[in-house]
Amino acid sequence: MASALRDWLDKPNTGRGVHLAADDGGWEFRGYGELASAARRTAGALIEEGVRPGDVVCLVLPTDFTCIETYFAVWAAGATVCLITPPLFQDGDDYVAHVAAILSQAEPVLVVASEDLSDYAGRAMAQAGLQGEPWLPRQAATEAPVQPAGELALLQFTSGSSGAPRGVMVTWDNLEANCELIARSAGFEEGDVVASWLPLYHDMGLIGCFITPIARQGALRLMRPDHFIRDPARWIRCFADAQHTAAPPFAYAYCARRVKPEQLVGLDLSGWKMALIGAEPIDPHSLEVFAELLEPFGFSRTAFRPAYGMAETTLLVTMDKELRDPVAVRPDPESLSFGKPVRILEQHSLGAQSLGAKAGWIVGCGTPEEDVPVRIVDDGGREVPEGVLGEIVVGGASACPGYYAGAEAKSTRFIDGEVHTGDAGFFHEGQLFVLGRMGDSIKVRGRSVYVEDLESKIAEVSGLGKGRIVVVGVPGAGQKGLALFAETLDDAWVPEVRETLRRRVGEDVEVTIVVGTGLIQRTSSGKPRRRYMWERLKDGKMDGARVVD
């Protein structure tokens, strides 16, 4: 199968390419001509190793030029790419088990690993029952011609925030349709520059900020996540000449906390066209504090593009494309019942009134395009009108066909060409508003209470940062429950938080509060592994945990 996403390998624009962040604060540049040549030589080596069109090749590589060249080398060889995260949030044994779970499902013909990650990859291969050793990237003496491709472009393994990782099958048609949707929604023009620090193994970083600009041979400034964490001002300085980026809400709030105006003196951000926000529920406070930091340097709130998407829909579903300040609403928690109208208590556009608007507020994620239909259904699968809460269902060319090797999920289902997302949301004034995972909620008196909302409120009441709080919906026989994990040894805040939870969820929900250090476990994309944490606590495997009576 041919694909326009690979055309640049035969017709590279030698005047453009990728600027890769270096550890010393500088940038290293390679043009598309050099990258295409290296990718095709690496493809030759892969073919010599026995890789054929349609095979799955797993990559365990850090974000560097070798990763970029090897990624497109797999495509040039006609194979399917499966990118696996380096060990960022997990210790050695947990990481090996995570990789082994992916390898067991993917059954790759080859596992490619960098020298410093080959030990992890080798252990994971053995645990998954795969023969051989990890393959270190190398190049053949000559460039291989681009081979015919199989049906699948990617295996995108979900991060495992709601269970074991599952490989989403992304066809070439899915990927081409979604990259076109992204470019169209973002207003991507010839010569535009993208800047990103997002990890390449995650759908927003891989498809939105890597594949889409490279396939269009736009200039790309690419940082690693640790570069951003150490120096977020470095990312902002990219927009002296870059126009597009994407990041989750916490990143914008992080910049507002860490970056000082004096670090940006002389910077002109008036050319910044798009700052996409996605990957988690969006609170207006995070956007407003970021905008207030950067407005003196030319940034406009209208550059914000709140969006909704998921791996099972390739990536993007909706994005607010209107040139306007994002719209935020505060629904009445008592009205959040599936199949029932959502009562809006307050509504405003992003501005000074958004400061402090965290718990209970959500930002609109735009209106669906005709080629990506979105509908809301109730518990019985019946479509509901605007203003009624239900499950988000997505169709169109970006809707993936299913999980690889027959894997299944509890919340997300693939039915008759549509993705039943497992996410709860509603339409209001034509925009999609997303509340959160249905699996990450509990029903209280017929309404849904979402753990992300509780986490924001508890962070405010306790004085702890949001990143130090994780709430888990705990199933029980005949009883609803919540477990609160807090990264702290202090428990003076517990009585006030218990009272807050009592008011929010009532007396009939059993609340377990756990304090300690090293409690919070995260997926490869940084999301809390809620169910895994609860199971570890129940099994007595959470060292250092203390349950507060």
From TrEMBL:
Record InterPro entries: AMP-bd_C_sf (IPR045851), AMP-binding_CS (IPR020845), AMP-dep_synth/lig_dom (IPR000873), ANL_N_sf (IPR042099)
Domain named AMP-dependent synthetase/ligase: residues: 25-404
Origin superkingdom: Bacteria
PROSITE patterns listed in its UniProt record: AMP_BINDING
Coiled-coil regions, chain positions: none
UniProt record similarity statement: Belongs to the ATP-dependent AMP-binding enzyme family.
Protein name: AMP-binding protein
Organism annotation: Actinomadura violacea
